[in-house]
């Protein structure tokens, strides 16, 4: 398999697995993976795409390679070259894949963005990234926001649109057809910036996270060991291309291990349609955020006989849903953990981790729980999740800088380790358990309280549809635990329900974790990626 040329594993005396990457100084996913597979197996399936209207497109590696060469030649002839920044706002359109590979081949920096951004959101990112061009899928609202954001930021860039003529955007499909499908290799380095993702901005303004050309290789364990994507299989990750989850599950690791990727293009999520896509195309491995599994459980989980493996990451998922999914499909859900700044750091690789845990560290990384003084925490002790470089060098897959904020990057890398800002603890079996964001940890009466455990209990109350827990100022305790609740439609918010919720939860919590306040809201403030803005709640 191709990935084995870059990735090696060995079993240590204690039975654990250690892995390493070995790649040339000029490694490029566009040339060394896509172009190579296209040359050796041009008819090998790369992408299966369909949309909610019933349209379907299937692409081989030969197709992707030729289309990416056409786009690359178009960009080069338009003055875009190595190091230039190009934004992609492609939703789930099939054009994302050849466009991304084209940018990798010419050494331009790809900046994926979600279509859900407002004009002001675009303006902030345009000002921060200073892009030379933007390519977007056809959507009048999105294109209007792009133009308005460009005006707000005082920016100017080349604009292409895929799928529809627009007076302010060039037609990329028409222009690429006039371009040559032949392209000679362009020199790039593995240390060059390859991709910039903006974080979701849970605790502040979104940060631009820069990854270099070694980043795709670090996703080999993501696909091979966690998602169980396989050669000849079809992997389906539910994600929009504007988020890092697309890199985790829709292109790099999957193609390296020989799997094709499934893309379902929709605007309104329908869990029954997702299950239908899995069955219609014979999806073998599936990864989705907990929200998707909740919807499937609510609507009824249908038989999915071709599915061999399922995984999830991103937020808490009730043990009841784990149990129900296994009862209906025979498959255990495998959880994983990582950040926009990283690839997969921990996961339930072998299926032996309890539901709700983060699993064990990836074989690529030395992941530890650290105390504030930098020493390693004992089993059961809460500390910060950190990645220690092996051999004294930054590991592939860990970001190379923050856009325009090297000082912030240096702080994240203090003390010879990358500090994630996330808190966790490790049990006696070496399983990691998430405790909460460092910024979200509540300090009450000398105790450090992670909101996640309280939210887990709170979410099981039948009157609670959504919830979030934060710390609020309290004269006696420093901070008090406050629950912000979106009540279920049939619930009647008021003093009686508040008391009922507090008594229900506090009977299941240690006294120092007791909920002291409950606030009812119609909705929770969220980032565009769906994460609750706890800073705003505080």
How does the SSE layout of this entry go?
Blueprint (H helix, E strand, L loop, with lengths): L6 E5 L5 E5 L7 H12 L4 E7 L4 E5 H17 L7 E5 L6 H11 L2 E4 L6 H11 L3 E5 L2 H14 L4 E5 L7 E2 H6 L15 E6 L9 E5 L7 H7 L7 E4 L6 H6 L2 H5 L3 E6 L5 H11 L3 E3 L2 H10 L9 E5 L5 H11 L3 E6 L5 E4 L12 E2 L4 E5 L12 E6 L12 E2 L3 H7 L5 E9 L5 E6 L4 E3 L2 E3 L1 H8 L5 E11 L3 E10 L7 H12 L8 E6 L13 H4 L1
Parallel strand pairs: 3-13, 5-6, 5-7, 7-8, 8-9, 12-13, 12-14, 14-15, 15-16, 27-28
Antiparallel strand pairs: 1-2, 3-4, 10-11, 11-21, 16-17, 17-18, 19-20, 20-22, 22-23, 24-25, 26-27
Helix pairs in contact: 1-2, 1-3, 2-3, 4-5
Task: Please describe what this structure looks like.
By secondary structure, the chain is an alpha/beta fold. Among the domains are: 24-48 and 55-213, ANL, N-terminal domain (Rossmann fold), CATH 3.40.50.12780; 441-537, 2-Layer Sandwich (GMP Synthetase, Chain A, domain 3). It has 16 helices and 28 strands. Helix 1 (29-40) crosses helix 2, helix 2 crosses helix 3 (96-106) and helix 4 crosses helix 5. The protein is globular. 47% of the residues are buried. The model has no long low-confidence stretch (mean pLDDT 92).
